[in-house]
Specification:
Blueprint: H1 7-18, H2 41-47, H3 49-70, E1 74-86, H4 87-93, E2 98-104, E3 112-117, H5 118-128, H6 145-157, H7 159-166, E4 175-180, E5 194-204, E6 207-216, H8 217-220, H9 224-228, H10 230-252, E7 257-260, H11 268-273, E8 288-292, E9 295-305, E10 308-316, H12 319-323
Antiparallel strand pairs: 1-5, 2-3, 2-4, 3-6, 5-6, 7-8, 8-9, 9-10
């Protein structure tokens, strides 16, 4: 170190250390990074995002097919964004009025939520009653009775699709608990609660609006082990079904079995002169080769059995010899 620092610099460094002037930034890592709490809800939810994404993708497809039964002009429902947010952020991001439905299940630890933006509600209702989904002025008040009744019936019809989407992870029996028009009136959530928010973009005709799926950490905490293995479990179930169908198909497939009696060499001149009724002599074979789809499978003795020509199996070739 003496070759790198001057004596004055060494004295200053030692003096600062002795006087306690050298700061111990134990809470700050090298490079300006900060410690990360792996026990936090944010990390736990982020770790489950791949599994939850599969659930939300299935939910998007189910919602699209279901809403089309009400409004055939729905073109698509695509997953736009999946994010981990605090409830305070959600309240600031979702403008009122919105049609928010609280969905409970005994399996989940807390309610989950579906939130329809006002533009989506107006467009769906207008198309349902024969309109063209033209944009309307977003009112600051609640929805009209007709709009509320339509959305209540629509969200109730989505319950089987929610069940099917979550089935890959856990069996749930969802039921609608409450309806809200503003997230500020949801008492079950605190501003600091961690949520996984999935935004679906719904295209109705030429218009697009958003539908939100909000899953609190408290809802998935009891089933996080099941969510951690959702991809693996689904793949195992799929592979087992595929193998079963494959084996059943193989066992029922029809193959061509040929008993090769022997070989005979014939000149081209004779072949050209062959006519109907000509006889080709074949030696009485002591052994014949049984071929399955062109591959030698067994050797046998040629003869008769109960008055029919037949072959008695004498040897089965090993698999390696069959390929050769």
């Amino acid at each position: 170190m003496g070759d790198i620092l001057e004596q004055e610099e060494l004295d200053a460094l030692i003096g600062e250390g002795a006087e306690g002037l050298v700061k111990d930034d134990s809470d700050t890592l090298s490079g300006g990074g900060e410690k990360y709490d792996f026990a936090s809800q944010e990390y736990a939810v982020s770790r489950l995002i791949p599994a939850l994404s599969q659930v939300q993708s299935s939910l998007a497809e189910g919602i699209k097919q279901r809403i089309r039964q009400w409004v055939p002009s729905v073109e698509s429902v695509r997953t736009d964004r999946i994010a981990v947010m605090k409830f305070a952020e959600v309240m600031r991001s979702m403008a009122a009025p919105a049609y928010i439905v609280s969905i409970k299940s005994d399996t989940l630890g807390a309610p989950i939520y579906l939130a329809f933006e006002a533009e989506l509600v107006f467009s769906l209702v207008d198309h349902f009653y024969g309109g063209r989904g033209r944009s309307q002025h977003v009112r600051a008040q609640d929805f009209s009775p007709s709009e509320a009744r339509f959305m209540e019936r629509l969200t109730t019809s989505l319950l089987p699709d929610i069940t099917a989407a979550w089935h890959t992870a856990v069996n749930i029996t969802p039921r609608i608990d409450e309806h809200y028009h503003d997230f500020r009136f949801v008492d079950e959530l605190q501003q600091t609660d961690t949520l996984m928010v999935t935004r679906f973009t719904v295209q109705v005709g030429q218009q697009e609006a958003e539908l939100w799926s909000v899953v609190p950490w408290a809802a998935i905490d009891p089933i996080r082990d099941s969510l951690g293995g959702v991809v693996r479990t689904t793949r195992q179930e799929h592979d087992a079904q595929w193998r079963s169908r494959l084996m059943a198909g193989l066992e029922d497939s029809e193959l061509t079995l040929v008993a090769k009696l022997g070989d005979s060499k014939v000149s081209l001149k004779r072949v050209c002169n062959l006519q109907v009724g000509d006889i080709l002599p074949i030696d009485n074979p002591a052994n014949v080769c049984l071929q399955l789809e062109g591959h030698a499978l067994m050797s046998a003795t040629f003869g008769t059995h109960h008055g029919q020509l037949s072959a008695k199996i004498r040897h089965i070739y090993p698999a390696l010899n069959r390929r050769n």
